[in-house]
Specification:
Largest sheet: none
Shape: globular
Helix content: 55-70%
Radius of gyration: 17 Å
Order of helices and strands: HHHHHHH
Keywords: Membrane, Transmembrane, Transmembrane helix
Length: 163
């Protein structure tokens, strides 16, 4: 018996989609492949490189601080996605599940999560600056804008909270 939308919560489905995006496309293997094989001067290549933005690493040649900041960005992206999916009221106010408000709520949660994850992790860099934090937040929000529709689709039809 297939599980229907009756068992799919909005925060759970969106968080699972965010985790899969980060684990697959943020992996060192995908990021290396995208940087070597995808031309960033084409729309498709640019998007393939953008998918690798929340990259995580366990490379021993990097400094421990760089590894922790990089990994923290990927972890925060997933955690903040769950938090924003829970807090955003779009699908909660909708009359029926599967409406466009759920889609935009999931999408916007990923935009906010990307921006704030980048902003917070910039504070842990060796020489943090306000302009670096703003640029990082812009990059994170840009990532969320172009990739967050996947989270929006994942949240369609789910229920809010517990029943």
């Amino acid at each position: 018996m297939a599980l229907g939308n009756r068992y799919k919560s909005v925060p759970g489905a969106g968080t699972l989609a965010a985790l899969i995006l980060v684990l697959v496309f943020g992996s060192p293997w995908y990021a290396d492949w995208a940087s070597k094989n995808a031309d960033p001067e084409t729309a498709g290549g640019w998007f393939l490189n953008l998918l690798a933005w929340p990259r995580w690493s366990f490379d021993t040649s990097d400094s421990l601080r760089d590894i922790l900041v990089t990994d923290l960005k990927a972890i925060l992206l997933v955690v903040l996605t769950a938090l924003f999916l829970y807090l955003l009221p779009g699908s909660q106010l909708a009359r029926a599940r599967g409406t466009i408000s759920q889609f935009f709520s999931g999408w916007s949660a990923y935009i906010f999560a990307g921006g704030f994850a980048a902003l917070f992790t910039t504070l842990f860099l060796a020489n943090p600056s306000l302009i670096a934090a703003f640029r990082a937040a812009g990059n994170g929000a840009s990532y969320g804008l172009f990739v967050g529709w996947i989270i929006g689709l994942a949240t369609l039809g789910g229920y809010r909270g517990t029943r």
